[in-house]
Amino acid sequence: MSDAEPAECRDEELRAAVLAAPERLRALLPGLTDEAVRAPSALPGWSRGHLLSHVEGVAHALARQAERALRGETVDMYDGGRPARDAAIEAGAWRGADALRRALADALDRADAAWRAPGPGDWTRPVRYRDADLRAARAAWWREAEIHTADALLGPGPADWSREFCRHTLDFLEPRAPAGTRLTLAATDGGERVAHGTGRPLTVRGRLTDLTAWYAGRTPPTAPVADSGPLPPLGPRP
Asked: Could you tell me which residues belong to the region Disordered (predicted)?
């Protein structure tokens, strides 16, 4: 895309990517069984039921950011804050597959409607999420949908992430660069080179999807390799 192309073209491409992401998760729901719901997810301490209940909750929460923003309002992500969010995940995790499937489908429907509604001039509307704008909330839903679909261990994984999504996620995760390190992430399957932080230079190489999974705190299919020594510890997620 050239710099001369209007911003709304980029917004439409991003909207398409954001709308497509949760559809990969939706396609997995018909095969969900009670046994599968109780099985572990990729997140330590969380069953697949916990993970899918979280996706349900964050879908509603971010959709609400969009709905209220279009009305000129801002609202907290979760009524009751983090404690209420955590309690809802724990309670929802123990539902049977049928109930969880219906609830998650409803949440994905709401998210789909919410992210179809904004027009080209709406993306700078303020939201309470990170005290940012509607564009940031949309990007958050993109990350939640793509990463947690992989975390569900139902088929799609990091290797299925698009290059555009990987580049976006690496940029978002810039604060994870280790202190005192100029960390360069170099894709061995493309031309991407992303540099974060300042200090001692260190290059980590791998496929772009593997670099992104590692930087997001996940276990990639093939671990990236540092040019010298082991992979560095990363800072907290932003």
From this structure: 217-238
Cβ atoms of 134 and 69 closer than 8 Å: yes
Distance CA 6, CA 2 (A): 9
Backbone angles phi, psi at 216, to 5 degrees: -90, 5
The answer to whether 227 and 203 are in contact (CB under 8 A) is yes
Local structure of residue 123 (DSSP, 8 states) = T
pTM of the model: 0.94
Domains, the chain: 7-156 (1.20.120.450), 163-226 (3.30.1050.20)
Rounded to whole angstroms, the Cα distance separating 34 from 188 reads 40
Adjacent-strand bridge partners of 186: 193, 205
Nearest 5°: the CA angle 123, 168, 162 is 115
Structure tokens at 217: 């705190």
pLDDT band at 110 (very low <50, low <70, confident <90, very high): very high
- CA–CA gap between residue 161 and residue 150 (Å, rounded): 9
